[in-house]
Amino acid sequence: xxxxxxxxxxxxxxxxxxxxxxxxxxxxxxxxxxxxxxxxxxxxxxxxxxxxxxxxxxxxxxxxxxxxxxxxxxxxxxxxxxxxxxxxxxxxxxxxxxxxxxxxxxxxxxxxxxxxxxxxxxxxxxxxxxxxxxxxxxxxxxxxxxxxxxxxxxxxxxxxxxxxxxxxxxxxxxxxxxxxxxxxxxxxxxxxxxxxxxxxxxxxxxxxxxxxxxxxxxxxxxxxxxxxxxxxxxxxxxxxxxxxxxxxxxxxxxxxxxxxxxxxxxxxxxxxxxxxxxxxxxxxxxxxxxxxxxxxxxxxxxxxxxxxxxxxxxxxxxxxxxxxxxxxxxxxxxxxxxxxxxxxxxxxxxxxxxxxxxxxxxxxxxxxxxxxxxxxxxxxxxxxxxxxxxxxxxxxxxxxxxxxxxxxxxxxxxxxxxxxxxxxxxxxxxxxxxxxxxxxxxxxxxxxxxxxxxxxxxxxxxxxxxxxxxxx
Length: 472
Description:
By secondary structure, the protein is of the alpha+beta class. It is 19% helix and 44% strand.
């Protein structure tokens, strides 16, 4: 078995990247295949995902399809400057999220929502009642007086007045909620990467490469519905921010037998972002909860939010198995276990909420975080059918990033199967297209405070890819 050129083998394997809807926020898979093509090379592609994701909230209400369709482009320009030096410019959108809830469920603001569940409200009233009763006694007997010093008939009057005051506060808060908070929970996060890569080929078998990465991130998040309690009505606008990282890797190949393997590391990239936040219920709820001073401090506070996109490692390989047939695959690791987003004011309020004992997070909590790293793998076979056509069949798996999962992306990994084809209308010009069907993993959803929120099961997605390439 012998294949005369590596290019003929790559004709079978370099199909569109449709490994979208991976764990956490992973999208593109950050492939280096375009840069590792022989000679001068250009490609441009687009990937589209059509997910169907639905579940039920804790009350059994159906969420409807909350998975939003999205697409993202990619492009690679690689120039073989000399026999031993190559340069590349690579563009992709590696991380992102898109979701929108609708219907009648706890992830959507509804006309008769209440700020807090009845049990939580009762606990707050019980906690605040002694202090309010003593305040009532001081209005009658003077500073330093306690409720116990009042006569029994006066105690009954004061208690009724305090209970009426608390109920009035509850009514005011719930009225504000019903009149000012509308719509469903949504998330829309996008990143863009532009990598400048240089490769050194000391021999025809080895390629050592590395370079800088320019990355932008932006997004919007809106939390709605009783699931989010005090955060019902919370909005975060993540203004576009840029930062820099790097990548490095090594590839080994034996062109005569279509053997090629590459290992690529990408660094984490840290952003300091000005997140514009609106906690609509903060001031109305503060009077009810006795948090006026804390609410004023949170509103007045200003600071950037740190968002660090994760480091990752990709292992790609292929090898000829018979004439005009190759086996190919890849393994990817992404360190999602250290990823978290805690917008500044969101985090300050979470510390107050945790301190009150309303959730089991005494030191506060994040808007989004993950408990495990992501592992994914794909394996496939490609065959050259004739001088103009080639095809591939592949299977893939993604571990997810832990379960329970965020309500903003309520699936845990997937299995997939894919078909692809490449058409070569003339030497040097290629058109690739492919599709994958994904069985999305069932998951328990939770809020940022790690409180249960719902169950999502029996979901799937279709992914499509199209790419054009030109060798020159």
